[in-house]
Amino acid sequence: MDVLRDLPEATVLREPSDLEPFRRDESHVQGPRPLAVVRPHGPAALRELVRRAKAEGFGLVPRGAGTGKAGGCVPTERSVVVDLSAWPGSLQVSAQDLSLQAPASASLRDVKAAAEAEGFFYPPDPNSWESCALGGTLATNAGGPNACKYGMTRNWVLAVEALLEDGEIHTFGIPSVKANAGPNLTQLLVGSEGIFGLILGATLRLMPKPREFTTLLLPTRHWADLLDLPGRLCAAGYLPSAFEFFDPAVLAELRAHGPEAARRLPGEALAILEFDDRGCGSETFLEGLLDLLGPLTEGLEMATDERQRQDIWAVRRLTSAFLKERHPRKVSEDIVVPRSRLKDFFQRLEQLDIPSVSYGHLGDGNLHVNLLAAGETAPEELERQLYDLFRLALDLGGTLSGEHGIGLAKREAFLALSHPGHIQVLRALKRAMDPCGIFNPGKVL
């Protein structure tokens, strides 16, 4: 029996060839073929989907552009993928409220462009920002280089529209930075990976667009010299808008096999340091910064115009795709350690003898540790390596995911290594908000 027959306000995909691409995202996880893929066009479709999911016992797995890296939108057994790429809505900027309304289907690229067209700035910028959907960034609480200064997606969400287990669409929050009438349910939904309900749209906070940038390419002869710099900068009152790094192993890969621009990258290790404060290009600012950098200024390159700035960032943006193309079965983790423990982390990582390369967001301690040989590693050995990596991050006061989320990829490690009280509270919330267990089953919990 077709449990989705005559579903109103929706397009339903059923052919195996149409369903096949929905079995995976950009992680290493692959799920079973879903029962169907539903593209809802209105609330009637969602209301009926919830009713039938409860009656027939299938799950509802939300999906945007499929760019996630933790298997969050990968189907599990007996589930229907709810593809929100066609969910209706338009982008609306309110200059007076410094806010922007957008549907989950909007691309993050379009959201950022709409803000910029009005002279405003929406900071979240995950590496997939040109192709990912807004809904996915809300569900996973996406980050990116700008999180170093501006924080994660949740810092910029004022309100959300969400489908809950009653089949209705509810709005949580208001278009204002002050809303203190009880616990903040908006923030409960942001980053929940669709396990409490499906986010359909949001009102986002904006800020005036930065008008000035200082962008530095910072090579170093000694890799360890970079590791104290994030903490020293912050302690001295310098908060970069981004602080990215490439360790020696990543640089070796880029120089040997990357595009021409990457093959010319200098240093044993390398950082990209950017500031967007007003006056960050002034002589006073730069003198103080260069004095703090000290010997690290040897070989420093500074972008003198927007083209040079974009050229510097282009190499950083291509790194993830380059490694994926070179090592298609690699596993990429996104652990976090406090800035003050970065040197300890890399010293202990070397002692663990986990074959890996690292790059990412040094300024906030969010490190992309890539196990390039994961596809050729015995499963039990790979599991040991991953658990050792996660335990190291936790031992140093960090966590096992900074921006990708838990999804399916890190679910078992999350359950095994998290504090039992934390899991107990999350499961109680899940039972209260989704008593039939229809929303993104098998993820996180």
Please state how the strands of the largest beta sheet are arranged side by side: 15-12-14-13-17-18-16
How many structural domains can be distinguished in the coordinates? 3
Highest CATH level, the class of the largest domain: Alpha Beta
Structural class: alpha+beta
User: Residue-averaged pLDDT, rounded?
Assistant: 96
Task: Identify the overall geometry.
Answer: globular
Rg: 22 Å
Helical run tally: 15
Architecture of the largest domain, CATH level 2?
3-Layer(aba) Sandwich
Helix content: 25-40%
Name the poorly predicted regions: none
Let me know the largest β-sheet. Answer: 7 strands, antiparallel
Question: In a few lines, what is going on in this structure?
Answer:
By secondary structure, this protein is of the alpha+beta class. It has helices at 16-19, 43-56, 108-117, 134-140, 147-150, 185-189, 229-235, 248-257, 260-263, 283-293, 306-326, 342-352, 379-395, 411-417, 420-433; strands at 10-13, 36-40, 59-63, 79-83, 92-94, 99-103, 120-121, 157-163, 169-173, 198-205, 207-208, 214-220, 242-246, 269-275, 301-302, 331-336, 357-361, 366-371.
What does this protein look like?
With 445 residues, the protein is of the alpha+beta class. It folds into three domains: 77 residues, Uridine Diphospho-n-acetylenolpyruvylglucosamine Reductase, domain 2 (2-Layer Sandwich), CATH 3.30.43.10; 117 residues, Uridine Diphospho-n-acetylenolpyruvylglucosamine Reductase, domain 3 (2-Layer Sandwich), CATH 3.30.465.10; 182 residues, FAD-linked oxidase, cap domain/gating helix (Vanillyl-alcohol Oxidase, Chain A, domain 3, 3-Layer(aba) Sandwich). The chain is 33% helix and 20% strand. The strands form four sheets. It has a seven-stranded antiparallel β-sheet with strand order 15-12-14-13-17-18-16, sandwiched between helices. It has a five-stranded antiparallel β-sheet with strand order 5-6-10-8-9. A four-stranded mixed β-sheet has the order 1-2-4-3, with helices on one face. The longest helix has 21 residues. The protein is globular, with a radius of gyration of 22 Å.
